Amino acid sequence: MNPEYEAYMCSEEWKGLKSRHPDPRxxxxxxxxxxxxxxxxxxxxxxWKTQPHHCCWLCEGCHDCFHRxxxxxxxKYLAWxxxxxxxxxxxxxxxxxxxxxxxAADVLATMRIHQRSYR
Length: 119
What we know:
Layout: H1 3-9, H2 12-20, E1 36-40, E2 55-59, H3 60-69, H4 76-80, H5 84-97, H6 104-118
Antiparallel strand pairs: 1-2
Helix pairs in contact: 3-5
C-alpha cells in the first residue's frame, strides 16, 4: 500500500470525513447497516483532498466482494465505478457469479437476520 494513502487512512481528516459523510449509513449494495466501510470510488490526485462524493458506504462483505470483482482483466471496473449505482452493480454481479445470492431481497433478509443476532 502507498505510504501516503496509509497515512491518510489513519488520519483525523479521514475519520472526520467518515463521521460527516452525507449519505445514509448503509451499504449501497445490500443495505445493511452493520460493519460499514467508507469505500473510495474516486481517488483524487492528492488523497488529502478527498471529498464525500468520492466515497460510498459498503459493508465489509460487499467491500471485499467489490475488490474481488476488480482484479485482472476486470481492473478497468475500478475506473468505471465512480458512483454508488455502478459500485452496487459490480458487487451484485460478482455475488451472483460466485453463487452468493439470488436476489437483493435474499441479501436483505439475510443481513437483517445477522443484524438482529448482533444486537
